[in-house]
Amino acid sequence: MQDRQQFRRYKTSLSLRATLSLHRLIRQCALLALLLSCLFGAESIAQQPTKTVAQLADEIDRKLAILQKNAAPEAASEIASSISEQLSEFAQQSIMIFGEHRRQVDEKLKELRKSLDDLKSNSSDNPTADVVATEAQRTWAAVKAHYPKEALNILPPLWSCSMHQDLMEPAPGNCPICGMPLEPIYVTQPQLTQTPIIRAELVTKAPLEVGKKADLRIRLLFNQDGRPVRLDDLEETHTRKIHLLISDLSETDYHHEHPEPVGDGEYAFSFTPMRPDTYRIWADLKPSLTHVQQYSVADIPSATPRQGALALEEPENRHSEINGYKFDLTFAKVPIHEKETVPAKLRVTGPSGEPSHDLEVVMGAFGHFVGFCDDFSTVLHIHPVGSAIEQPEARGGPELPFYFRSNKPGTVRFFAQVKIRGKEMFPRFVIKVQPLQHLPSL
After folding, report:
1. Does a structural domain hold residue 95?
2. CA-to-CA distance for 212 and 217, rounded, in angstroms?
3. How many CA atoms lie within 13 A of 83 on its CB side?
4. Which of 300, 330, 354 is the last residue before a domain boundary?
5. pLDDT by residue (tens digit) across 177-210?
6. pLDDT at position 334 over 80
């Protein structure tokens, strides 16, 4: 009897071990299948780089035009299916629009998809392809009206990864770190090199004095061999080869100057400081050797050192007024987070209270923007959207659109540069950039 019980226990033990082994094998196979699926899935994703808003809009435009030519029902259904897929991809490009614009776009996209579904069903009760296409064109035009024109007409100069936002690439593709498709980043500020090849030195006769015009020289030299930098060594950006961005330590008194050559690698300029303490110069240059913009930084000694300071906890301010002209900044999204591209506008109102259309051409545009961060080191040099203006007599306003992006959180002292009735004005604003909000890890 005892032997028989031991044999049963032995059989049960074998059966249990076999069952556990089978379950372990099934789990291992399932895990292997999941890993293979992830690997092949990631590979298929990596092989499909993200298209820009402009590329998708152009393809949808062409396919809607084909529908209007009375395509056969089978062809119309196939084209409608293709457009529906591209609309889904188009809707994911949300970095350009926020808030109410986003809501209206989503509603119009629903209407457009319903029209396309009528074509895909291929029912005799549904309207013909040309009728549907005509209505779809109207709805599609309403969708595009919410996007900045630049997003629909040009390719962005930079591409980034949503998981690795410090990465910036000059062309679409896949992230070299994780393999995800790169997303377009619409910015109107230059891409700067991380390793400047030119250094700047200031040549001064006397320290700066508040309210007194200072005549200065800046010397530009190549880091590698100390060779003087001539104008032929630089490429032109916004009608000039050298832009000097000048600010005092409190980031209150801003100047933008363009020096003239006076010697081998030396350039003369002047300005009148209105604040005490040190001023810093960022020489905005684009060397022909790299074709990438860089900043060469130098400080100007002052007769009143250590008297200026950066204001602590300066409140946000998006309004400025100079000589009766009012300047207002608006952003498509608030709050603004670091590494986030946000469409923005500067609106100018004249002394009469009417919108001003008197903006004159400054360096090929109706205005420019420069921002200084808390560290007194990071600079945002932002250009308005649109092509260069070649007619010096042209006038613009009342709005000047641009894209704002800061890779650092904190306070940005932001200056616009405009010219009205022959006088240059530099309205000052204060923008708060919030830290990037990370999702909690699972």
Report:
1. yes
2. 16
3. 31
4. 300
5. 888 888 777 777 776 777 889 999 999 888 999 9
6. yes
